[in-house]
Amino acid sequence: MTETKTVNGGRLLVDCLIVQGCDRIFAVPGESFLAVLDALHDSPEVQTVICRQEGGAAFMACADGAMTGKPGVCFVTRGPGATNASIGAHVAFQDSQPMLLFIGDVDRSMRDREGFQEVDFGLMFAPLSKAVLRIDDPRRIPEYVARAWQTAISGRPGPVVVVLPEDMLLDEVSGIAPRPPVYRPAQAVCPDAMTAMMRLIGDAAAPVAIVGGAGWHAKAREHFTAFAERIGLPVAGAFRRQDAVANSSTVWAGNLGYGPNPKLVQRIKDADLILAVGARLGEATTEGYTLVTPDHPGQVLIHIHPDPDELGRVYRADLAICADVGEFAEEAALWDDEVIPFDAGEEAHLQWLDWTTAKPAAFPIDMAACVTAMRASFPDDAIICNGAGNFSGWWHRYWHYNGFPTQLAPTAGAMGYGVPAAVAAALRHPERTVVALAGDGDFLMNGQELATAVQYGCDLLVILIDNGTYGTIRMHQEREFPARVSGTSLVNPDFAMLAKAYGGWSERVETTADFIAALEQARERKGLRLIHALIDPEQLSAGGATISGLRAKAGK
Q1: What is the model's pTM?
Q2: What is the pLDDT of residues 90-108, one digit of tens each?
Q3: Helix, strand or coil for residue 476?
C-alpha cells in the first residue's frame, strides 16, 4: 500500500495485520466488521477460517498462538459473539499464550445507550486480558495494531482485546501506512544473577526443576535440556506443559498437576532447591499451593520468568531472575562454571518410566493399554489436543511427549478445547499427525467445529471417550456425596454416526482389541476420522479411582 492510497479502516486494519506477520484469522462473521471481511476477500496472504461458534474460533486462535509464538487472531461481533469468545481469552490469559481478539462494536454515535448487543468491553475483558484497546480513529489503526501485537507477545504473553466500532471501519483515510513489524523484546540474563544461581545449585543436595510456561519455545527446550542433562538435574513439567522437555530425556521426571507420580511428588517435597523456569507455580502445578508453598520453608526457590509482575507476586523467591526463558536457557547451557553432576536425574527418569508402564486393568476397554498401543504406532511429533476431563489423564500419564509442540491442553481447565485446537493444529502443521481427545461431555461443547475441519480439509483424528457422565465431577461427587448421583449423568447421541454426518470416517468400539484395530484403520486414512470408545463409567480415572472403590471407602 502506498502512502497516497485511500482505503477504509477495514482495509488498513488487514494490511497492518499482514505486515505484523498474520497469515491466518479465525472468525465467526458479523455485520459489525463487514469491512474487514471485505478486505480479507482480496488478501491471499491471510487464510480466513470461518468457524461455527465464537468459543471454537477463540480456542483455535489460542492454540495457534501456542504453536507459533505469534498472536493467534480471532474476529467476532459484539455482544453474543464477544461473550461466546470470552472463554478463549480466559484460556489464553491463564495459559500465557499470545492472542488478539478483535470485536466489532456499535457505531461510535450509539455508544453508551445500551444499543443493540452493546457491552462495555473494557469492564468485561479487564480481568481476562492483558489490555483492552478501542480504535475510534482509523488513522490510529497502525499504532493500535502494533501496540496490541507487542503487548500480546511481550513479558508474560497473553490475549489483547481490540474493539472496532463498525462505522470507524468504514471511514476512509489516506496517507496512512502500516507500522513495521514488532518483535518480542530481548531479555538477556544478568551475569551476576547466573553466578548466584549456579552457586546455589552447586550448594544444593537435592535440587529439582519445574519448567514450562510463559514464552517457552523450541530454543528454550533445547538449551534447558542440555543444561539439565549436563548436571543431572531432575526436570518436572508444570501442569500440562509436558512437551517442555522431550520425555525421552535422561532427566525427565514427569508432570505435575492432577494425578502425578507419587514418587515425583515426594521428590518435590524433599527438594532443598527448586528451579522454576517459565512456570507461574499455579494452583494445579502445586496441588493448591501445598506441594510448593508460597513461603517454601526449608527450600530455596530460584524463579525465572519473563514478566517482572509474576516474580514475587505469589511466591517468595530467594533469587528472582527476569529474563526470556530462551535467553536464560541458552546462557545456562553455555555457562562455564562446572557444577558437580547429580545422580538424581537418571533416578527420577527411571521412576517416571515405571509410572508410565501400563498395568493391566479388568475393563472391556483398558484405557492405559489403549494409550500404550497408540504410543507405539504414532510418530513422536504427533500433536495431542485435549480439553478438560478425567479422560485426558490417561494421556497425561501414559503418553510420551517427545516432539515440540506436541501438547495443546488448557491449563485453565476449559472443556471443549480439544477439537478446535486440533483444527488449528491440522491447519498449522498439515504434515503431522493431529489427535483430538475428548470426553462425551467435553466433545458436545465444541463438536460442531468438525464442520470447520471438513470445510478446510483438515487431516485429524478424534478419539471420543464416552462413559455417559461428566466423569471428573462424578468422581468428586462420589468422593463427597457417595451414591448420591445428581446432575452428572448424560444421554448421548451416536457419536460415530454424527461423525459420518459431518463427512468423516468413524468406528464405534467397546473393547481394547476393537480400539487398537480401529486405531490402525484410522492411521491408514486421511481427513476427519473419529473413534467412538464406550467405556465403563466405573473406570473413573487414570489414577485408579472407581465408583465402587470411592463408595466402599465411604462405607456406602
Answers
A1: 0.95
A2: 999 999 999 999 999 988 8
A3: helix
